[in-house]
Amino acid sequence: MKPAQVAIRAATPEDVPSIAAIYGHAVLNTVATLDTEEPTTASMSEWLSHHDAAHPVIVASVNGETLGWGSLSAWSPKGGYRTTAEASVYVAPAHHGSGIGTRLLQDLIARARALGVHVIVARISAENRTSLQLVARCGFTPVGTMRESGFKFDRYVDVEVLQLTLNDSCI
User: Has residue 78 been placed in a domain?
Assistant: First the structure.
């Protein structure tokens, strides 16, 4: 697959089963998310309904196949955080290492900038070296480590918090 063949676009309700499958793999097999319940199409439809023009969900696809997805979510419901968003990116296992995650994150950064977001936050398991390297390449800097703040697979998980102030990024 050539990078030019991959389309990045806004997610639609028709994308929910693919989004749920990609996220479900991460939930069941990794600490890339600290969710512990496998998502359903209904739960992911509900999740998608809480995103809007200011908090987009995007997908990467080629020939109708969803390769990955990303989202910007509200960091906090408090008004003072309205220009802060949290980024999430998940890629189907068959496409890990193909650059899809980078393309999705770059697109989210560009959308965030256009939306007037000032800071993008990422919370990443300290074990998830690939995602930590991805956000570092795109200009995110460490803010701190939340020691043993997650619990999954019968063990505690450290979570790294990183942020990107939208004056410096890979775009």
Answer: yes
User: Could you report the per-residue pLDDT of 39-97, keeping only the tens digit for each?
Assistant: 999 999 999 999 999 999 999 999 989 999 999 999 999 999 999 999 999 999 999 99
The pTM is what?
0.93
Element of type H or E holding 145: strand 141-152
Distance in angstroms (rounded) separating the CA atoms of residues 103 and 6: 9
Neighbours of 29 (CB within 10 A): 10
Alpha-carbon span 130 to 95, nearest angstrom: 13
Domain count of the fold of the chain: 1
Q: Which residue in 76, 66, 74, 68 sits closest to 99, CA to CA?
A: 68
| 170 confidence band (pLDDT: 50, 70, 90) | low
**Is the CB of residue 54 less than 8 Å from the CB of residue 105?**
no
> Rounded distance, CA 112 to CA 105, Å?
10
Residues spanned by the domain of 83? 3-118
Element of type H or E holding 72: strand 65-74
